[in-house]
Amino acid sequence: MRLCVLPGLLAAALLAGCAAKVAAPPASTLQMPEQWRAPLPDGAAAQPVNAAWWQGFNDPALTALVTQALANNGDLRIARERVLDYRARVRAAGAAQNPTLSFDTAPARTRTLSAVTGQPYITNVFAAEFQAAYEVDVWGRLANATEAAAATARAEEANLDAAALSVAGNVASGYLNLRGLDAQLELAQATLELRARSRDLARRQFDVGYSSRLESLQAQAEYDAAAEQIPQLQRQIFEQENALALLAGGVPGAIARGTTLADLAPPPVPAGLPSELLRRRPDIARAEQTIAAANAQLAATRDQLLPSFRLTASGGIQSADFSDFLHGTAGLWRIGGSLVAPIFDGGRVQAATDSAAAQRNQALITYENTVRQAFAETENGLDAITRLREQVVQNDARRATAAETLRIAHNRYTNGYAAYLEELDAQRNLYAADVTRLQLRARLLTASVDLYRALGGGWEAGR
């Protein structure tokens, strides 16, 4: 018995050195910065990022909208189903490592010619058999295939988290932009009322001969320009509401409002080292798991040139008569094993291995690109908050100057020392400064959203 086994073991040992050749991975070009290039905004605190960071805006309507979107968004529902799909694939891959058991019954009735008499005769065969098979995973090929499926499933789970972070960020940014448009609409309506009073004043002065028709027409044109802004802003608000409703998994419709733009305050800016970003971003975790899956798949593909060992066993009963099949059958059994190894495949396995190695290299490069992109987004987020705050300071000074200019121009016009054109210019400058002020405030709030999204939104690897 031992002499019969030795040739098989010797052949397996020889074939073990015939696995496909794997090219070395490319050298890494990723460099980790020790600190952020952008200056940390004033008030930045070394604190963990809150997973529900949108609650830091203290707006119940925003919180409710994000919660609804995380539950009902269509893209997230698809991503959840993908996770279930890939978890099922893991179970399917793992099942290949377990023995299989099957049952087979094949009753048959045949009419054939006798080789002796040349006369036809009828035979019956009743049989039932159980079959068992098991592949011995000597080289770990099946285990590697299972690990590849498991790593891919983990990548899909991280992808779900990345999609949820993206949806929460888009909803928060969209809502804050909506509140910014609301504030601009209120400003436009208030400005229209002022322009109406100025127009009426210019008409009265023209009627009594105090001013020219040119000034009256200028006042009317300024009123028309202010009125033109209102339907444009209303259209933008309408479209923004519809976009938010779709993000939240609903039909186009109105969006509930909460805190006004003036009262909204961004959550504090979290500070940390660049290295901490690697465990905060789900897209980086997804890239890591993609590498793990590619490595495991590469190992499984490479080992296809190695021999496979399979054990089989079967047992059952058989009879030529149905009554005997139930009471007096003959027991049959069979036990066997097989060793299968490819001798020549035309380079198929080596080509598949080269392809798997290239996919592994792509995953490595993608990981580096993802990390670099994460650093860039965080740097941009930190710098944006600092620069927007500086712009707000400059805008406050500009608005104060514009307001004082308008006051002087209005007094000069009402006292007859200047033409109405001076007051119109001053009104335009103040209105432009007010619009910029509202836009800057909305951009500063959305910059906080972008920063929290760049920091991974409180997500942590392994959570």
Please write out the topology.
Layout lengths: L1 H15 L43 H13 L1 H22 L4 E6 L2 E6 L6 E17 L4 H67 L5 H35 L34 H21 L5 E12 L2 H6 L2 E11 L7 H67 L5 H35 L9
Antiparallel strand pairs: 1-3, 2-3, 3-4, 4-5
Helix pairs in contact: 2-4, 3-4, 4-5, 4-6, 4-9, 6-8, 8-9
Class derived from helix and strand content: alpha+beta
Beta-strand fraction estimate: 5-15%
Total of helices = 9
Largest sheet: 5 strands, antiparallel
Give the averaged pLDDT, no decimals. Answer: 85
Mass-distribution shape:
elongated
The percentage helix is 55-70%
Please tell me how large the radius of gyration is: 38 Å
Low-confidence stretches: 1-14
Terminus-to-terminus distance: 54 Å
The arrangement of helices and strands along the chain is HHHEEEHHHEHEHH
Number of strands: 5
Explain what the structure shows:
It is a single chain. Helix content is 61%, strand content 11%. The relative contact order is 0.16. A hairpin with a 6-residue loop joins strand 2 and strand 3. The longest helix has 67 residues, at 141-207. Strands 1, 2, 3, 4 and 5 form a five-stranded antiparallel sheet that branches. The chain is an alpha+beta fold. Helix 4 (141-207) packs antiparallel against helix 5 and helix 8 runs antiparallel to helix 9 (420-454). The chain has helices at residues 2-16, 60-72, 74-95, 141-207, 213-247, 282-302, 322-327, 348-414, 420-454, and strands at 100-105, 108-113, 120-136, 308-319, 330-340.
Characterize this entry briefly:
The chain is of the alpha+beta class and 463 residues long. The chain has helices at residues 2-16, 60-72, 74-95, 141-207, 213-247, 282-302, 322-327, 348-414, 420-454, and strands at residues 100-105, 108-113, 120-136, 308-319, 330-340. α3 packs antiparallel against α4.
